[in-house]
Amino acid sequence: MSEHFHEHDLNFDKPREECGVFGIYSAQPNDLAWLTYLGLFALQHRGQEAAGMCVSDGDRFHVEKDLGLVTQVFDERRLDSVRLAGAQVSIGHVRYSTTGSNLRFNAQPLTTRTNKGILGMAHNGNFVNALEVRREMLEEGALFATTNDSEVMLNLIARESRMDLVEATAAAMQRLRGGYACVLMSRSQLLGFRDPHGVRPLVIGQREDGAWVLASEPCALYAIGARLIRDVAPGELVWIDREGLHSLMVEARQPTPCSFEWIYFARSDSQLDGIDTHESRIRMGQQLAREKPVEADIVVPVPDSGIGAAIGYARESGIPFDYGLYKNPYAGRTFIAPTQEARELKVKMKLSPTSAVRGKRVVLVDDSIVRGTTSRQIVNLLRDAGATEVHFRVSSPPITHPCFYGIDTAARKELVASTHSVDEIRDLIGADTLAFISEQGLRKAIGGPGLCSACFTGDYPAGTPLLNDVDKLALEV
Amino acid sequence: MSEHFHEHDLNFDKPREECGVFGIYSAQPNDLAWLTYLGLFALQHRGQEAAGMCVSDGDRFHVEKDLGLVTQVFDERRLDSVRLAGAQVSIGHVRYSTTGSNLRFNAQPLTTRTNKGILGMAHNGNFVNALEVRREMLEEGALFATTNDSEVMLNLIARESRMDLVEATAAAMQRLRGGYACVLMSRSQLLGFRDPHGVRPLVIGQREDGAWVLASEPCALYAIGARLIRDVAPGELVWIDREGLHSLMVEARQPTPCSFEWIYFARSDSQLDGIDTHESRIRMGQQLAREKPVEADIVVPVPDSGIGAAIGYARESGIPFDYGLYKNPYAGRTFIAPTQEARELKVKMKLSPTSAVRGKRVVLVDDSIVRGTTSRQIVNLLRDAGATEVHFRVSSPPITHPCFYGIDTAARKELVASTHSVDEIRDLIGADTLAFISEQGLRKAIGGPGLCSACFTGDYPAGTPLLNDVDKLALEV
Amino acid sequence: MSEHFHEHDLNFDKPREECGVFGIYSAQPNDLAWLTYLGLFALQHRGQEAAGMCVSDGDRFHVEKDLGLVTQVFDERRLDSVRLAGAQVSIGHVRYSTTGSNLRFNAQPLTTRTNKGILGMAHNGNFVNALEVRREMLEEGALFATTNDSEVMLNLIARESRMDLVEATAAAMQRLRGGYACVLMSRSQLLGFRDPHGVRPLVIGQREDGAWVLASEPCALYAIGARLIRDVAPGELVWIDREGLHSLMVEARQPTPCSFEWIYFARSDSQLDGIDTHESRIRMGQQLAREKPVEADIVVPVPDSGIGAAIGYARESGIPFDYGLYKNPYAGRTFIAPTQEARELKVKMKLSPTSAVRGKRVVLVDDSIVRGTTSRQIVNLLRDAGATEVHFRVSSPPITHPCFYGIDTAARKELVASTHSVDEIRDLIGADTLAFISEQGLRKAIGGPGLCSACFTGDYPAGTPLLNDVDKLALEV
Amino acid sequence: MSEHFHEHDLNFDKPREECGVFGIYSAQPNDLAWLTYLGLFALQHRGQEAAGMCVSDGDRFHVEKDLGLVTQVFDERRLDSVRLAGAQVSIGHVRYSTTGSNLRFNAQPLTTRTNKGILGMAHNGNFVNALEVRREMLEEGALFATTNDSEVMLNLIARESRMDLVEATAAAMQRLRGGYACVLMSRSQLLGFRDPHGVRPLVIGQREDGAWVLASEPCALYAIGARLIRDVAPGELVWIDREGLHSLMVEARQPTPCSFEWIYFARSDSQLDGIDTHESRIRMGQQLAREKPVEADIVVPVPDSGIGAAIGYARESGIPFDYGLYKNPYAGRTFIAPTQEARELKVKMKLSPTSAVRGKRVVLVDDSIVRGTTSRQIVNLLRDAGATEVHFRVSSPPITHPCFYGIDTAARKELVASTHSVDEIRDLIGADTLAFISEQGLRKAIGGPGLCSACFTGDYPAGTPLLNDVDKLALEV
Fold first, then answer.
1. What domain range is C108 assigned to?
2. Do C204 and C294 fall into the same domain?
3. Where does the Glutamine amidotransferase type-2 domain lie (chains A, B, C, D) (predicted)?
4. Please, what is the Cα angle at D101 between D100 and D107, to 5 degrees?
5. D14-29: b (≥16 Cβ within 10 Å) or e
6. Residues A442-466: b if buried by 16+ CB within 10 A, e if exposed
7. D residues 20..59 contacting A (CB < 8 A)
8. Between B130-139 and B149-159, two packed helices, what is the crossing angle to 10 degrees?
9. Residue stretches of the annotated binding site of A for Mg(2+)
């Protein structure tokens, strides 16, 4: 019996972002399929299970999507099939998928024909009351082709047959609760909107040629030569058409952007809500060094997610930074492994210790611990390579609660910190000492007016699903 | 520049059936995915562009579909992914697809979640008033994920939220007009229905183990060891559940089954509405020999579609049957050809003359002439091989009108018989003589109480789309 | 557990030709890769396991080959990769492969660098003393990259370092015994040669543009617009260069071309050694009707291999020909089947009875019986469909001996006729009567000066391998 | 027009290692195909164009190889096809391929049948007199199936028909000159050998279960749970059979291992000839800081190749290390790009600056400069991101000469340092200052008794090919 490892399996012990979105509107015809491809490629880290885009020239409306990486889904033939000479609007999506047999049909963007013409929509995040709204609409005779939240939003929009697309979208935003960032297009408009708390990110950029761009992270703007203009504000709906960029504040609450964007998800070349990710990670490391100092010989990051915090820890502590774990750059490829060896191989094929750790007291810095299984293996690797002490430092607080706003943190019972004390976790992973940054320390390191830290505290700013629906969400295929 | 030929290109000068449907209900759990695969394989000649199936065990509901032949879409991995241990109901579909970029999304079965639970539907044929109904429902706030007629039907069914599935389906049948045969499944029921004129075929079979089967042709029943019980009657709705087979006559009119099923589409081992296809083709050949005799040395079929009529013509005329055209069995594979040579190669790579025609006066028998381009090349092949005379005999009348009931006969202006006399066509294709069977002769050869011969006469028993919609149908992608 | 059926599995109960060869030389630069592709496509029936070609423009020398059908191996990218603008010489090959893990490396053409420059070679047939010669050369320090007979020939050619390519090839022909037809190319010459008995076929053609063509069958000439000039004579070596076509009679013996080329292998539009295949098959059927008459209602061929003989049988006997078995044109595709049902499905998915046999006494005509398993199932199909009697007529004598000249007739113990009498076979397959054509009758029906009928008589005109080597041949992977 | 980027294109401005080799011998039957797969996966960085392995159980001898990454070539089906239950010996290979149409046929291991039985061989490096020896053997009647150096070695071995495999291999080593490390297997023996100067690396390891392993780098030992025993000595031939590990010193010269193994090729968790790569890279950075100091704010590595030297530079200089360039982990995937944008995208899609460089004087550390095109783009990226000064530091001396021992450094005229002074290169790449480590400094940083630095000095320890053959090597396809 063999198993296959894929990209996402290698990060199986990390929280998983469920999506990245991208949109572009160009008054002058442009090769938007190509620009969307570049943008999605830059957002690939936000979702590796599926990719898709739709493109319109004001008349035709093409869509392609499938399971796989952006570069796998869009081979030359398929990219050509969505390339429209006079393209004016396009959106795209990358996705971390949930399980189930109907994966392909849940890929985004979702496209549908409505009384407002053909629409395409892609979202990042979750509507916590989607199932309630869905049940209600089913009773009224609606069809649902997918189990995708976007379809609930699109049904709400279509139902308002007397409103125009912008009004109907604003109405739908008011009906749905949760943490989300969405892009939506018709043949002639590009819309983007963010939940009232701004849990999920969405930024606005512009190219020299005037084209407007929306994306989950600024790196996707840079990838196509656009400048970062600003973030979409929490609760804001923006739309772009022939006349330019318009804005409507639908409903703003206390901003609580997701702290994990800075801890782990966002690329180190991104800035979100005015805060630079690389710099914030260095500050987390510095804060961690102040809060949880230790006497040691070198500071070693778990590559690549722990690099920023490790640099910060080294700077603050004065302990030298070193590269004690080699990361195999081919580790993301589909890999075959005998079932009985699969678990351990996932780590061994990805990481191996360098000589830097031999005979050293090591401060090992990672961004988070979810299940703890990977952490234990990394500690073992270091000890086998001759590390005399391993002091594990984590640049996020213990994760004790599930996320309902679009991040797959694993079921609650699998979260090691929800059932074990820090000392118990230390014993489980076999470190000499283990310490997490404090929630206050994290807030200080990131900065900004507010943060969603529901997964550390259970305090959900945008509410939770009905208890019954939590189970259904788990069951739904 | 190169072109690729595919399966369907090699029959590009034939009318194209748009679909084949299959459904099975088994009170005892059975490997329905495998049986549906076998059934679809037997119906492959009815559609080569896409294939799909959905399967339920009463709880789970899996669907897989894609572009390609049945054996291409369902490799082992994919067939396994719809295989449910306790499967009780399954439907499947093969399709000749229309053009456009959204082909994949129009593949069937169409599945959707409704107030009657999750439903899967597959159809053969067309609803002529689908666009009217669609417009009306869009206004009311409905979404349409596809341009597929099945989705209109499903919306009609979902809208009747107080009716059960059977009642709602019957209501929907009364709202839609056209020529169609459909299968529809929920987690616990299999439904099948046929338009009031019975334009498109649908048969009922049963296996020894009690499982009920619905299919476009009996060959799909035989393929899974089922007996033919009877045809679904025109205007009849049948449904199968734990209790057995139920029937409701929704609305019956004068039966006018499509004559092309016997002329060309149906396999020669099928019987439809009590009439055997192979036998009817022999009778067409005999009738043609009586109506349009000629002095000649051998009767040669265009393989494989002209074989039955050629045998009939030879028997009636006493002229020896011979195998004058070799058909390359590999001709259906994807083939690369330089653009400038592509047209002629389509015929040359498929057919080549044997020595049988050398020095002979040949009666060449084919089932139909659509554009005439292929016919001309076949006549040329025979002359190059030494045939002294070529007398072309066609076992269908001239096709002068488009079909609105699910057959792609090419646009009217491309139908050579709509703009040319028989003598002009004879000159175009270069035959010494050319003759078609008469419409009366065809009716006599097929037999039965009625026939749709709209494509020969313009007399459409189930009506036509609104004039505007005819254009839209052509434009829709 | 599942099995996959492929193309060749569906003919598993037929003798298997091991190869088809093709070569072309054009003094003017031409698109020879494309012409070779067309030629190989026409020879596809001679081998479905692997395909390959090499092409030279006098300077570069490109080769591509792989497992699969011609159209699978040569997708657009791969065909382009062997397309040389100024190509002057090319050879190609299709192959029925033997088993073993190193299949890919045995695909042809075989290319090698020698003191005569780079050479490419492809063969049909076998050298019966190849293993002896090989052992001898290994002792002398030769390397063998493959287990392919062509490599033995190439080593013999290379060893004659003082001779030119033509002389060395003639010398090698004298050293090797067996039944074979080969094409061989250098950067500037095309050679073709046939064993002294002419067991395997090879024909010469020419295009209007002067290009010379060699091929296993004339159908490959016609496919590229070439005329049949003549057959290569038994024992003749021909070569083509800038000056034209040259010939050398190396060693001619009593011609004994393989009778199975006319019985089954060659396409019905081919002529070999002056004898037309389709006509000879009709004569076989007529002879069979004279030798083994029976009272019956219809004559039914096993499609497609029995068609010619069935027409002949019908003509001679006056019993009507009919199309009693439908052959599914998609049956050659890779197909998945549960292991326990696989055997029976191989026939059922390919053939199904039409109504023509119902209530009839059927003469069933096929070209050969190897193992008999398929024959039994076909007889069963006809009885299940209502045939009242089944009279099996075979247009070849019983196969009792293995072929050592390139045809895989199955191991001797699997040949039903080597261990069973005709009456016993009749009982095994369940026919009412069974009769084979006589060897004399076959010779008369085919005509010509001589025939290899070793598989019917055990009389091997070109000798057999050493007894030890027969076993080694079986073991070799 | 579009181009496709592949793995290797993204390192197109780096020297390219041509191969990695692996071999394993296990007296007890073991799953050697799986262990070889793991070993090759760990060596993937040494060659991304092709991968292959052969496996024997003492009787059967299976081989699989193809173009692609290890994980692409060996999908489950293919890995299974070389899995022999009682496997005792296996070798494997990964390769950076040269251009030409016959790539597939040059993939390794090369297998051949000889008077010493079937042999498989894989090599890293080059024999500089291979063409001379090849010419000589062609004259004697030898065939060459490939243009692969291994085949020359195998012909030499086969020619010694009176010697056993070990003796014949030792004789062949004496006949061939160059820089190489090879593994060779028969059905019952595993051999490994390294050129007399030890230019290319080869190490010996052993697993707990007693199996002996040979590999280009220790990381492949660790990957399968083996310990590093020692390096194969320059000029040593080792062989392993049922009795254990044997050694023969064939011909030892002054050791001059390739300096680029430590500069760039070897993984940072490898030790070669007793010298740790990660530590040596830190020493290179420290040396560089001493030799070429500069006043600046941060030290930034070009990831991942410059990390070690950057850490060293930072430590020695006291300037803070920071992560100023983000490397997209998906950049190695096949990527489509419009031709006109392709060149610049190769860098942009792989690297993007973080905020760390904004307003900073940056020391940018890389391991080497080949053409300089990539370096210029990286300098531009940093300036665009706000770096006020860019001081480029290179941990290898200027590359002025081609390598004839297995590394593709680009043609001499493309080597920017062979035609430009350091100041000119600085201007070309747009850096404020540019400095390379000195050759003496490099020797000191690496340590050890000797080093091949031919590419910096033109002093070739193992000789060069004949002048004529240098051209032929370039032309050979």
1. 16-256
2. no
3. 19-243
4. 85
5. bbbbbbbbbbbbbbee
6. bbebbebebbbbbbbeeebbbebbe
7. 31, 34, 37-38, 41-42, 44-45
8. 50
9. 305, 366-367
Spatial contact of B450 and B234, defined as CB atoms under 8 Å apart: no
CA distance B372 to B266: 22
Say which residues have a Cβ less than 8 Å from residue C25's Cβ, sequence separation at least 6. C88, C89, C189, C190, C211, C212, C240, C241
Q: Indicate whether D286 and D221 sit together in one domain.
A: no
Does residue A18 contact residue A47 with C-beta atoms inside 8 Å?
yes
Q: Are strands D275-276 and D271-272 parallel, antiparallel or unpaired?
A: antiparallel
* Domain co-membership, D62 together with D139: yes
Considering the domain architecture, whether residues B245 and B311 belong to the same structural domain is answered as no
What is the model's pLDDT at position A38?
A: 95
The confidence score (pLDDT) of residue B347 equals: 84
Task: State how many domains chain B has.
Answer: 2
Could you tell me if B207 lies within 8 Å of chain C, comparing CB atoms?
A: no
Residues 265-294 of D with CB under 8 A from A: 267-269, 271, 276, 278-279
The CATH number that applies at residue A293 is: 3.40.50.2020
pLDDT digits (tens, 9 = 90+) for B128-169: 999 999 999 999 999 998 888 889 999 999 999 999 999 999
Residue with tokens 């540019």: D434
pLDDT, tens digit, 9 for 90 and up, residues C214-237? 999 999 999 999 999 999 999 999
pLDDT of amino acid A9: 47
D308 pLDDT tier (thresholds 50, 70, 90) = very high
Please give the Cα distance from B375 to B325 (Å, whole number). 13
C109 and C250 in a single domain? The answer is yes
Measured N-to-C along each axis, helices A149-159 and A165-175 cross at an angle, to the nearest 10 degrees, of 120
**Domain assignment present for C462:** no
Helix axes C277-291, C307-317, angle to 10 degrees: 50
Tally B–C CB contacts below 8 A.
133
Report the CATH number at residue A83.
3.60.20.10
Calpha distance C355→C385 (Å, rounded) = 7
Strands (E), C177-273: 178-185, 190-194, 203-207, 212-215, 226-231, 236-241, 244-249, 271-272
A176 and A222 together in one domain: yes
**Of B38, B322, B323, which to mutate for an interface test with C (greatest number of C Cβ within 10 Å)?**
B323
Q: Are A196 and A252 within 8 A, CB to CB?
A: yes
> What is the distance between the alpha carbons of residues A271 and D386, in angstroms, rounded to a whole number?
15
Please count the other Cβ atoms lying within 10 Å of the Cβ belonging to residue D198: 30
Closest chain A residue by Cα to residue B144: A113
Pairwise CA distance, residues D98 & D72, whole Å:
19
Averaged pLDDT score across all residues of chain C:
90
A214 falls within a domain: yes
Which residues on C lie below 8 Å from D113 (Cβ)?
138, 143-145, 147
Whether the bond between A109 and the residue before it is cis, its omega within 30 degrees of 0, is yes
Do C241 and C387 have their domain in common? no
Any domain includes D264: no
CA–CA separation, C326 vs B271, rounded Å?
13
Residue A24 forms beta bridges with which residues?
Answer: A90, A213
Contacts of A3 (CB under 8 A, 6+ apart): A336, A337, A338, A339, A342
Q: Where is average pLDDT lowest: A400-404, B60-64, D101-105, D267-271?
A: D101-105
Please report the pLDDT score of residue C16 as a whole number: 61
Kindly state whether residues A100 and A200 are assigned to the same domain: yes
Residue A40 lies in a domain: yes
Q: Which chain D positions have a beta carbon within 8 Å of C147's beta carbon?
A: 113
Q: What is the mean pLDDT of chain D?
A: 90
d(CA B60, CA B118): 10
C19 is catalytic: yes
What is this model's ipTM?
0.91
Percent with pLDDT over 70 in chain B: 90
Which are the catalytic amino acids of D?
19
